Amino acid sequence: MPLTDRDRALLDFEAEWRRHAGAKEEAIRAELGLSPARYYQLLGRLIDTTDAQEHDPMLVKRLRRLRDARVHERALHAADAR
């Protein structure tokens, strides 16, 4: 399914959010009208799509790499807790 306007807005925001003044969470609410939790849910699903990868391959690769590192780190902490 092709990217929606909202999908493109999420990807574009993530690519450019550092240019916004203030905290990222405030910018998410102001620019996109979403709660930060919802934004991250949507973005997490979006970066797994081929269309997102085609839209901005460098951004999607970076976000996947960051997500994979967080998952790996959580798994290490869970293993240490046993």
Summarize the structure.
This protein has about 80 residues and is mostly helical. About 75% of the residues lie in helices and about 0% in strands.
Verbal overview:
With 82 residues, the protein is mainly alpha-helical. The chain is 77% helix and 0% strand. The protein has helices at residues 5-16, 24-32, 36-46, 50-55, 57-81. It starts with a helix and ends with a helix.
Low-confidence segments: none
- Count of strand segments: 0
Portion of residues within helices? over 70%
Most strands sheet: none
Helix/strand class:
mainly alpha
Distance between the termini: 42 Å
Rg, Cα atoms, Å? 14 Å
Shape: globular
Please indicate the percent range of residues in DSSP E strands (runs of 2 or more). Answer: under 5%
SS field, number of helical segments: 5
Mean pLDDT: 92
H/E topology pattern: HHHHH
Describe this protein with a few key phrases.
0% strand; mainly alpha; 82 residues
Topology of helices and strands:
Blueprint: H1 5-16, H2 24-32, H3 36-46, H4 50-55, H5 57-81
